[in-house]
Amino acid sequence: MDEKILHSINELASKLGVTAEYIWGILLRQAPISAINNFIIMASFVIATILAIRYTIRKITPPDATKENPHPYAEWNDETSVFALAEVALLVGVSALVILYLFPSFVSALVNPEYWALKQILK
Q: Which 3-state string (H, E, C) describes the chain?
């Protein structure tokens, strides 16, 4: 395995016209940047999902009957509520898949950048 990795690094370095140590150093510096990028993507999906859930709940639940609003009906009817909840469920599913896909790379790039760099070379 070590010879295969070394051969891959040397082959990539010869194509780029640099040394293998230079490529390895660049990959080690790229690991935290990749971790931050993955974190931003995951956080964006979580925030978008939370905002969509809060907005949908606000629209499908009836407000309290007050003097200003004597009709305690929800803003969206039952059909619209069903479609909105289906869309939110789809967004939750997509967000979960994105997070499950990016989280291992995020952790490995942050905790063990050498392992992350090795995985990038073997791709």
A: CHHHHHHHHHHHHHHHCCCHHHHHHHHHHHHHHHHHHHHHHHHHHHHHHHHHHHHHHHHHCCCCCCCCCCCCCCCCCHHHHHHHHHHHHHHHHHHHHHHHHHHHHHHHHHHCHHHHHHHHHHC
Average pLDDT across the chain, whole number: 84
pLDDT at 65: 54
Closest CA to 99 of 41, 53, 51, 49: 41
Q: Do the Cβ atoms of 35 and 104 come closer than 8 Å?
A: no
Angstrom CA distances, 119 to 5, 8, 11, 63, 90, stand at 10, 12, 16, 53, 31
Amino acid at 120: Q
pTM of the model: 0.76
Structure tokens at 56: 């949908």
Report how far residue 66's alpha carbon sits from residue 7's, in angstroms, rounded to the nearest whole number. Answer: 75
In the chain the first and final C-alpha atoms are separated, in Å, by 14
